[in-house]
Structure formats: structure tokens, C-alpha cells
Amino acid sequence: MQQLFTTLLTGLTLGMVYAAFALALVLIWRATRIVNFAQAPMAMLTTYVALVLIEAGYSYWLGFAAALLSGLVLGALVERFVIRYVDPRSEINPVILTLGLFIVLHALAALVFGARYRSFPAPFGLRGFQVGDTTIALTGFGIFTILSVLAVVVLLVLLFRYTDVGLKMRASAFNQEVARLLGVRVGRMLTLGWALAAVVGSLSGLLIAGGGLVHPSFMDGVVVYGFVAAVLGGLDSPVGAVAGGLILGLSLSLVSGYVGSQLVSLAALAILMAVLLVRPGGLFARVRERRV
Amino acid sequence: MLSVRDLTAGYGAVTALDGVSFDAAEGEITAVLGANGAGKSTLLRTISGLVRPSRGSVTLAGLDLGTVPVEGMAAVGLAHVPEGRGVITELTVEENLRLGALGRGGRVGAADLERAYSLFPILAQRYRASAHVLSGGERQMLVIARALLARPRVLLLDEPSLGLAPRIVVQIFELVQTLVRADGLTVVLVEQNARSALSIANRGVVLNLGRVVVSDEAAALAGNERLRHAYLGF
């Protein structure tokens, strides 16, 4: 019983991080139909920005804010100066481009920050809370992880549902031509979409790094799990991304706790295949209407 | 109000419009007629800047539209309802309407929505619904209502009757006529359904293979039997 509880709590925390990363992928997919594999090294770079500031003696929170802000800028720059110039009619070109960006950003990080492992601080405790004489698997940092991802989800929902900018962003994502005819500056909305996605990606980078080690490829595993989570949710649905992240986090934690930790990546693949076989559009895909 | 001069445009090597000229007078309905592939939709797409002309010009009340980006057309008073409805089905009815008002840089006011709902009562009942549950006729009403919220001076309507039941077509055409009379709106109406279009239009322009065949009063076009048989199909 206690082991189950521990496993579920670990899975919940992990799932929230996958959810954040999946959300970043979904935001970009919805707006530009591109799976942004460069999201991982982008988040890695911004985490290094935080690390440099923290190691220079500034507070964790200043580093945290700087990482999110640099994510915003980096996302906007990548869209405006790289992605904007790829032919949108080609399906494979943008994917190759984000993979190329993946390699370039990796190399850049190794050059600027070095390729060695560096430890990254956490703002809250990394030890489980003590209840009586048992230790719960929920740490202070774990609670922070869950709450910060929840906060991001709520903020995004408010933005998309209740603001004019959010409405314009959605219109641009769903139908560029109609949006332009109605006066929406679609290019700006796409830049903003990439910028916001990179902020969410940066958050997942900070959450993975907290209390752990940072090196140029520390986010590479997350891109795989984040991608699986996003596909589970249907790639098009932010709610699906969060649900997909949680499902994946909990399942992998159960596999790791009860079956064996070496089977985790295999389990992720099995879950992905099972979902694609049963519901090819993802768990949360809305049935597309037929065009008449 | 809207003046098209020597407009020439194409896709790659294909010339879809070849030196088209006509005027759409203020407060009138100008029907653009012709067979499939005559260049009717391309004409509207070139006027609103979605296709850039290789020659010729379009002016709206003296303003050269060649210098206005597509995103700026709503602000200068040009609304284009593209073929195939253009409802954003992933949004709700109300969100589609709000988007219309954002185009002129404003927010949708209670008065705006009230007017839209009084013209199109069906939308009032379903304003919270996702637009993809609407029928074809309701979608056409929604896009016209959305275009009106930008308070345009010129409305370009591309095949509003496409795929709709005759009863609904009559309803929509009557509505367009009401708008023209009440607001002094200028309408350029592209239609395959020439008979219905000429019944509400003041003037008509007949296109064939990207060129203007004839441009005249609507009644004169409807009365010309040879022209009707050759180009209008009725």
C-alpha cells in the first residue's frame, strides 16, 4: 500500500514535467504543424542561463525568471529568423530543420558552457515529508513542480479562452487565410506562439534540472517522453497534452516500481503503440468533420 | 466605390485574370458571373490581396489597395467572405463574431452583437455552441454577420449559395439586399447561380477565361437570351 502511494506520487510529479514539455510541443504543433525537436536543447540552453546566474551568486528565483524570459526571446527568434523561411507546404523540411537546430544548439551549449556535468540547485527541499515515522515520496520541490505546471496550464487556458490575443492566436492556428482576411497579423501570432511554447519548455527544463545535474544533453530523454505524452493526447489538444503527460508519468512510475526500471523506455513505446492502435488520433482528438 | 482597372493575375504560368476592369458603385450590388474557372474567385482574391496582381490596380474610394497588406484590408473597410464559408469551426459562434470586430481594431460591443443577432436570430440561440455544429446555411449567416462586425464599406461575397437549399439561398440573398438598403453597403457578389444573383443585383459583370465578356445593368443581362445561354446557363 505504501509502495503504491509512493509510486503514484513520484509518477504524478514526473507526469507534470512531461505534461509541461508536451504542452510546449502541442502549442507549436497547433500553430505551425511542426514537431519542434529543438524544444529540448532550447530548454537546455535557458536552464544554463539560470545556472550561470545562480553560480554567479544571484538568487535561484532571479535565475528562474531569467530562464523563462530567455525562453521567450529564444522562441521568438527561432520562429522569426529560422522557421519563418521554411516552405510551409513541405512536411519534412521543417522537421529536418528542427533536428538541425537540435544539433546546432547542442554544439553551441558545449562551446559556451562546457560539456561537463554541473549540479543545479533546487529552491525547496528534496527530501520527502515526514508523517509519523514514514516518509512520503512527495518533496517540497515536487509540490513546487506540480503547482508551477498547474499555474502555467491555468494561465494558458485564461489567455486562449478569455483574451483577444488568445482568440487571435487560435484563429491564426486554425485558419491562417481567414484570420488574415479578418485583420489578424498572423505572423506576429506565430512568433508569439513559439515564444510562449519556449517559455513552457524552459519551465520543464528548470523542473528537470532542479536538484539534479545539467549537461548539454540532459533534456534529450525528456523530448522523447514529452513527444509520447503529446501524441497520447492527440498533438492538437493542450488538455490532452497534460492528460497524456500524467498518464505517461504514472504508468512509467508503476512500471519502474513494480516491474523494473530498465523497462521504462520500452514501456513508453508499448503505451504509445497501444494508443495509436486503438485511437490513432490520440486519446483526446476531436473527430474531424468531413469537408463538404 | 470600388474600382478595378486592367487587373491581371495568375498562378505560375497560368493566367487566371486578363485585364479585368469594372466599377462597383456605392450602395449597389455588383454580380460577377461566369462558368467554373472563369476567374471569379481569383478576382476577389486579387482584390483582397491574397493573390498579388502582375498588372493593374484596385482602388477603394480613391485608396490604392495595392499598397495595403491582406491583414490591413479589414481596417480600410474591405471585407472578403471566401468561398467555402470560412467559418473557423474550432471556435464557438461568439468567438467567430468577436474575431470580426477585432479586425477593425475594436472590441465587439453589446450593440454590435445585438444587431448581428437581430439580423440572424439563429445565431443568438447558438452563440455558445462550437461553430462546427452549424448547418451550411447557418455557417453562411455566421460569416456574413462576422464580416459585418468589422463595419466594412465594401463586402466581397464568394459563392454564398454554394451547396445550400434553394429556400436558404433566397433567405440569404434577401438579407444581403436588406443590408445594402439599410447601410448603403457596397457588395461584389460572385455567383454560379446567375439567375438568383441577377435578381438582386444592380449591375452584372460576366467573365469568361479571365476576361470581361460584358458588363451591364442586371436587368439587361437577364433579358439577353443569347448571353444567358452562352455564359450564364439559364
Kindly describe this structure.
The complex is a heterodimer of chains A (292) and B (234). Chain A has one domain: ABC transporter involved in vitamin B12 uptake, BtuC (Orthogonal Bundle). Chain A is mainly alpha-helical and 292 residues long. The C terminus of chain A is likely disordered. In chain A, the strands form 2 sheets. A two-stranded antiparallel sheet of chain A has the order 1-4. Chain A has 11 helices and 4 strands, in the order H-H-H-H-E-E-E-H-H-H-H-E-H-H-H. The N and C termini of chain A lie far apart (55 Å). Chain A is globular and about 65 Å long. Chain B has a single domain, classed as Rossmann fold (3-Layer(aba) Sandwich). Chain B is built from 9 helices and 10 strands. In chain B, the strands form 2 sheets. Chain B has a 6-stranded mixed beta sheet, with helices on both faces. In chain B, helix 2 runs parallel beside helix 5. The mean pLDDT of chain B is 89. The interface between A and B is medium-sized, with 19 and 30 residues.
* Main sheet: strands, sense, barrel of chain A: 2 strands, antiparallel
Which strand order spans the largest sheet of chain A, edge to edge or round the barrel? 1-4
The total domain count of chain A is: 1
Q: Which CATH class of chain A?
A: Mainly Alpha
Q: Output the CATH class name of chain B.
A: Alpha Beta
* H/E element order of chain B: EEEHEEEHHHHEHEHEEHH
Q: Could you say how many structural domains of chain B there are in total?
A: 1
In DSSP terms, counting alpha (H) and pi (I) runs of 4 or more, how many helices of chain A?
A: 11
- Proportion of residues in helical segments of chain A: over 70%
Radius of gyration of chain A: 19 Å
Tell the overall outline of chain A: globular
Q: What is the beta-strand fraction of chain A?
A: under 5%
The low-confidence parts of chain A are 288-292
Helix content of chain B: 25-40%
Biggest interface, CB < 8 A: A-B, 19 and 30 residues
Describe the biggest sheet of chain B? 6 strands, mixed
* Strand element count of chain A: 4
Structural class of chain A: mainly alpha
Enumerate the spans of chain B where pLDDT stays under 50 for 5 or more consecutive residues.
none
Order of helices and strands of chain A: HHHHEEEHHHHEHHH
Transmembrane segments (chain A): 6-27, 34-54, 60-83, 95-115, 135-160, 190-211, 266-285
Protein name (chain A): Branched-chain amino acid ABC transporter permease
InterPro entries (chain A): ABC_transp_permease, BCAA_transport_permease
Organism (chain A): Actinophytocola xanthii
